């Protein structure tokens, strides 16, 4: 039956893809600006920023990382690249300060407290909190106004359950669709207190006229989808992607 369906789809010009495409290569195909503006929010030690630099040699990349240890590594790693700026800020819904939970595995640090069931869900103690620090926060709208940034070509989000608040802080930019592409981690399993369910993300993005292109890097435990990276586009752009 599957082969029959595939042959029918191919007869009408629809491709059938068995392999998951690489998310960064997909973004490279979608973004055609000669010098794109890229926000790497939750940059950690810069692996995503390095992937963007490889594919967009002339991009202006802003890395946002509030945890001092990781921010220092970012600054050292990209010290010779004037096109990459490191901001020791946490992006959120608004400007101010917040308590960051520092966990046993620093890549899981979050402004949100760890859910009591996180260890049971993941089978690891990576999210156990050892201390808290005070970090400065700002919203994307406020940051862009303060730095005269009219458009973001790629907004990458990996802030451990706080992606919804970051998007809320970009409501003005999203309303006028001044963000061309959003590549965001979404955690499905209960991991942080206050993380929003997937339905709220879909409602929020639809309210701004964005739709889901695809998801990448799914992590599963048994039959359960634990997390994945989602790529969102304005609907006008999304409707053109079937010909790419």
UniProtKB/TrEMBL annotation:
It is an enzyme of class 2 (transferase). The keyword Methyltransferase applies. PANTHER family: NODULATION PROTEIN, SLL1456 PROTEIN-RELATED. The keyword Methyltransferase applies. The lineage of its organism: Bacteria, Pseudomonadati, Planctomycetota, Planctomycetia, Planctomycetales. It comes from the Bacteria. Keywords: Methyltransferase, Transferase. This is 2-O-methyltransferase NoeI. GO terms for molecular function: O-methyltransferase activity. NCBIfam families: fkbM_fam. InterPro entries: FkbM_Methyltransferase (IPR053188), FkbM_mtfrase (IPR006342), SAM-dependent_MTases_sf (IPR029063). Its EC number is 2.1.1.-. Residues 40-210 form the Methyltransferase FkbM domain. Gene3D superfamilies: Vaccinia Virus protein VP39. One of its GO terms (biological process) is methylation.
């Amino acid at each position: 039956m599957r082969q029959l369906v595939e042959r029918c789809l191919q007869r009408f010009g629809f491709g059938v893809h068995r392999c998951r495409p690489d998310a960064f290569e997909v973004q490279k195909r979608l973004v055609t600006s000669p010098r794109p503006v890229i926000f790497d929010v939750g940059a950690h030690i810069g692996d995503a920023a390095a992937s963007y630099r490889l594919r967009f040699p002339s991009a202006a990349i802003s890395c946002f990382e509030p945890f001092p240890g990781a921010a220092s590594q970012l600054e050292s790693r990209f010290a010779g690249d004037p096109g990459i700026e490191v901001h020791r800020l946490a992006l959120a819904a608004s400007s101010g300060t917040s308590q960051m939970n520092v966990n046993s595995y620093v890549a899981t640090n979050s402004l949100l407290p760890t859910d009591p069931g996180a260890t049971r869900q993941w089978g690891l103690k990576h999210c156990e909190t050892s201390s808290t620090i005070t970090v400065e926060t700002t919203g994307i709208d406020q940051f862009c106004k303060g730095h005269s940034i009219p458009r973001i070509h790629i907004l990458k989000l990996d802030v451990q359950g706080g992606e919804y608040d970051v998007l809320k802080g970009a409501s003005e930019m999203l309303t006028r669709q001044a963000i061309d592409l959003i590549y965001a981690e979404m955690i499905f399993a209960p991991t942080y207190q206050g993380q929003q369910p997937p339905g709220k993300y879909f409602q929020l993005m639809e309210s701004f006229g964005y739709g889901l292109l695809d998801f990448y890097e799914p992590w599963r435990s048994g039959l359960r989808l634990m997390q994945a990276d989602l790529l969102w586009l304005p609907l006008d752009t999304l409707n053109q992607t079937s010909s790419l």
